[in-house]
Design brief:
alpha/beta, Aminopeptidase, metalloexopeptidase activity, M28_fam
Length: about 180
């Protein structure tokens, strides 16, 4: 959480993600941005955020990209495990296994894969923050520039994985996604 009293644990989470991405052999990018959040005292404050991006480049075709993403900051009102902790664990384990399979040649990677952890999910602040979330800055200022004519195959956004959703059409893949590797 970006507010001062939580800054130490927030920065430790950031360092841990970077260390994990490095240990997996991902190319790391850090995207910084500035946004606004609302505190418990209903005060709007400016904060700096950092989206952490890990890239696993395709061995053949660099013209297609798929993305896995989740938030790594937490709200002040939710249990951190249910909020983003479980989702972050899933993303990190997915990246680790993906890279392990690639290094062991158990996977022929024909698509560049981006693993991104978004900072500052402004809708989690009370009331919802007036600023844009890290995911907005990632798309508008990083991803669109990165794609630069490449084919974007889709994104798996991993949120609230410790909870189950019984609603129809919440777990479906779009046509062709089963074939992406």
């Amino acid at each position: 959480h970006p507010l001062y009293e939580y800054r130490n644990s927030w920065e430790k989470a950031r360092t841990y993600i970077i260390d994990q991405f490095q240990s997996y052999g991902l190319k790391i990018y850090k995207q910084t941005f500035r946004t606004q959040v609302t505190t418990h005292d209903n005060i709007i404050t400016e904060v700096n955020g950092v989206n952490i991006i890990g890239e696993s480049q395709s061995v053949e075709n660099r013209s297609s990209v798929i993305l896995f993403g989740t938030h790594y900051d937490n709200s002040l009102t939710e249990n951190p495990l249910h909020e983003n902790g479980a989702s972050l664990a899933v993303l990190l384990e997915t990246a680790r296994l993906f890279q392990e399979m690639r290094q062991n040649e158990a996977l022929h990677q024909n698509t560049t894969v981006i693993f991104v952890t978004f900072d500052i999910d402004t809708r989690n602040y009370i009331p919802s923050g007036p600023g844009k979330p890290g995911s907005y800055f990632f798309i508008q200022e990083w991803l669109l520039n990165y794609l630069n004519g490449r084919e974007f195959l889709g994104a798996f956004i991993i949120n609230s994985v410790s909870r189950f959703n019984w609603q129809n059409k919440t777990q479906d893949l779009i046509k062709g996604m089963q074939q992406v590797s």
